[in-house]
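Input sequence (292 aa), recorded before submission:
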Amino acid sequence: MTDDSVDYDSDVEAAIRDNRPALITYITAGDPTLEDTTAYVEALDRGGSDLIELGLPFSEPIAEGPTIQAAINRALEAGTTPQGFFELVDELETDAPLLVMTYYNMILQYGSEPDVRPFVERAAEVGLSGIIVPDLPAEEADPLREACDDRGLDLVFIIAPTTEGERLETIMSQVSGFAYVQARLGTTGARANVSTATHDSLARLSGYDVPKAVGFGVSKGDHAAEIVEAGADGVIVGSALVDIIASSDDPAGAVAELEATATELKHGACRGAVDDTEADADAEDAPEPEQP
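Predicted structure, token format:
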């Protein structure tokens, strides 16, 4: 964690920069119930999450792997609605800023007629700090971008390993809060190792002055350490946490495991920052090569 805090217009950016390396966690709201979600979010907050993403269930999630798709189905079967979601967020009290992750149609259809502003206004009212929309192309994001700017919310975009050139420039001109760096092609889901694409993506984004956080496949402290050492400002963990919820028959047990896992991941990220600092120091202290 950095010692000197700076005032930022964005709660999301501040949470990452002031707590670098930041831990960003995700669970699906309403899985298995909204009441359980409250306890799970509070556990992640206690465990060291610097930002918490809450998935608003949508019936056709395109970027999610089997783990999160199953969580979304459980939440929908439990009757989770946008209204219930917003009521949940309104009652939550966390140190970590909260973001909603959902799909564009949910945002567009929230009001009495197709318009993004009612959703954004409600999100701001209940205290959300940002929105992540996996299926919204940056080229079509102006209405949502303007609505978010008007209400002081960040709009986060996901950047795939293959994104480059003019498309990358377009995304980075629209993003705020942080850039969500997709660690690998495909859908979400816990993996055994960190993709080499992560290092390439972070190198490609190094010239942009916005925090970079890596997600898709992160599941343990060693992953977090490697990602931070590669240059990320934060790590994003979702499927590994959703797995804990899905496999638990005891909400109290899930609460304890979520808190412990968040703590492990945060410690791993911090370990990566130390390793990164030591590597930089070693490079600076290395003797100059002899001239022939």
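Checked by second reader. The longest helix spans residues 251-285.
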